[in-house]
Fold:
Amino acid sequence: MSGPGIELETLPLNFPHDFLPERRLLARLLPFAAAKGRGTKVEIGAETGIPTGESTGKVEPMIHYARGMGLIRVAKDGGRWQLSLTPLGRLVAEEDPYLSESVTLWILHLLLCRRYGLAQPATGVADVWFALFAEGGLRLGNRFDQASYLAFLTERHGVKGYLRGLASLVLRSYLEPTCFGSISVLSAETLTDQTLYLRRSAPVERSHFPAFAAYLFLVWDALYPNHHQLAIGEFFEQSRCLTLLGWDSETASQWLYWMTDHGLLQLDRQTGGALALRLQDTETVIAGLFDELI
Structure:
């Protein structure tokens, strides 16, 4: 089976530096990475038009976002970055270069929230995202406020001056139409002087099943690189896949049947819990990302 082609390292906790994951800026990295561009952050900013400066700016935060979302690979030598596209990044650059499709935004969201390795306690590649969407259900509930989220992050990482702004940034990124707002991962409601955030489930729609399948294969590669067959219940539990989607096992069965019908997985239910056998490599599954769009 093909390797995942996505970054497997964790991102610095405060990698956003107060900058939202703006789709228009992430999109500007794709042609640069397609050309295997290389340069300092100032040089990359000049070539891509992403605002930056010597001491601050948006280039490096956008690089980290794109890494976490599985779009690019990076290497860094001193202050110079080398960027290249992953298989997912190549497809998105060709089919949805402005990151406007719901299926694109969903897989980028899910990959940004993915687990890093199988060590305990569980952590995420971008841990403030993983904490909220994968681990926050029991601690925060389905409806929560920013103060509760901040307290949860402080429990995980200790008192850090930037956590308040970081918590606000994560929540805002799911309300801003320039970021993830169009896919309604979160909604907000104001009661008196308090804003509450509500988690929303992923759409149970055939049009999105290829994106969720690509996410499953990429995360399988990252967490279980030497396994072609897994107990699907164990995979869901360890990856937090269903938690991120907001689905129960009955809802997920519609997606699993779609994957078996399309020859991506074979499910063996004769052993008690279902075993999933991979029938396709990851790049083949990624290539079908937009196949169900009308």
Remarks:
- The mean pLDDT is 94.
- The first strand starts at residue 38 and ends at 39.
- The radius of gyration is 19 Å.
- Strands lie at 38-39, 72-77, 80-85, 143-145, 186-191, 194-199, 229-231, 265-268, 275-278.
